[in-house]
Amino acid sequence: MKAQHPSALIAEDEPLLAAALEAELAKAWPDLRIAAVVGDGASAVERALELKPDVLFFDIRMPGMSGLEAAAELADAWDTSSTPFPALVFVTAYDQYAVQAFEANALDYVLKPVQPARLIKTVHKLSLAINRALDPCIGETSGQTSAEASLQTTAKQLALLMGALQPAPTAPTLPASVARLRQLQVSSAAGNNVIRMVPLSEVLYLQAADKYVRVITEDAEHLIRMPLKELLAQLDTEEFWQVHRGTLVRADAIDCVQRDETGKYTIVLRNHSDRLPVSRLYSHLFKPM
Questions:
Q1: pLDDT in tens, 54-64
Q2: Which of 8, 37, 60, 222 is within CB 3.0–4.6 Å of 67 for a Cys-Cys bond?
Q3: Tens-place pLDDT, residues 114-144
């Protein structure tokens, strides 16, 4: 059982706003210990995995990796056998659409600038959740199965929220009259100067790699110099499924999905030896019918 004084990690790239949130938390929740304050998403993931706090306050918009992306990466890397996944609260500037998305997906939020009355409500919910997790008759006796199930629920909520708040913002909007891509113009991974036309029906999966997207077929690998998000906006999402933050797989290319003893899924492809890990955010796609 963890200490009776819960701990929190704050991820906020604006120091004044981070200090304001910390000050308001000190008033609303005197027993809460702030374990760390970081200014970017990558540091938030690193420090959360190191410190295992009870609560995460993640700013939605941070440099490099957003708060949503950081939460998704952390959820995928978290080991529930040692510690339950922290309670998650997003910090956001007021936007009615964003607020509706949070409420629709049952994820908590506080608004910037911090509003004490709203923060008190959040603190009350968090306190109840943490006390419930520490109740020996409820939390710890249920073991890893309960912790993993809770994290799977959070991951699904995150996936839905990311879909609602981040519909490929960097990609151009395609008019309804414009057909989706049927083939890709690709370069060879070997580095020659030939441009090939690869039908999407031959593509097994697409994977982000630095500034490129790897295009994997049964017998070759090609490259596209385009962000994966931009490419995703031009694909049929019923044909290509996102199974990881950087991986899209053609649904018809999936032979089976294997689940290990920890609950993690791995995709086995038809006619190809590569195995594709499935992020917790997308594992709900493979629940038995």
A1: 999 999 989 88
A2: 60
A3: 889 989 999 999 988 887 766 655 444 455 5
**What is 182-241 written as a DSSP string?**
SEEEEEETT--S-EEEEEGGGEEEEEEETTEEEEEESS-EEEE-S-HHHHHTTS-TTTEE
Instruction: Kindly tell me if the per-residue pLDDT of 175 is higher than 70.
Output: no
Cα-Cα end-to-end distance for the chain = 37
Q: Which residue has the higher pLDDT, 263 or 276?
A: 276
Cα(152)–Cα(163) distance, integer angstroms: 17
Amino acid at site 91: V
CA atoms of 150 and 280, how far apart (whole Å): 11
